[in-house]
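Below is how a single chain appears once it has passed through the pipeline. First comes the sequence as given, then the structure the pipeline wrote out for it. We keep one example in the README because the format questions we get most often are answered faster by looking than by reading.
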Amino acid sequence: MNIKYEEAGWNCKDFLLLSNELDEYLNGAIGGEEKREKYKGFNHLDTMDYVIIAYEESKPVGCGALRKYSEESMEIKRVFVREAYRKNGVAAEIMERLISRAREQGYQNMILETGEFLPASVRLYTRLGFERIQNYGAYVNMEESLCMGMKIK
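Resulting structure:
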């Protein structure tokens, strides 16, 4: 598998496509779009500060994004890899590149929100050094949310 990684804007058609696929995947994993309705306001693509897309040849196979959360913290958003490309290190490489970008920009912390219903994602984040933290921001009163963070400085 020959995967290349490219920076893109939030409005890149491949990022939009993969983000829609991520939403469909999450709807299936949690049991329907109506159960994710309250999350829609937290994933506005036009608020992403940095986007990376993984390609096999010219086919988009995965993505991830960063959004500034505070002066010290960058939030990881929209990490997704198409099923046929999972378990090949694509998600880990996307995450490493996101972490490196935040570190280069002088951020001290990375945070993210996921759910226990995504055990493969939780395992990946844990393997990369993320630990469970108190739910932050809009996720404070959402019991199904699992927030994680790590220091990068």
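Helices lie at 13-30, 90-104, 119-127.

See the next section for the split statistics.
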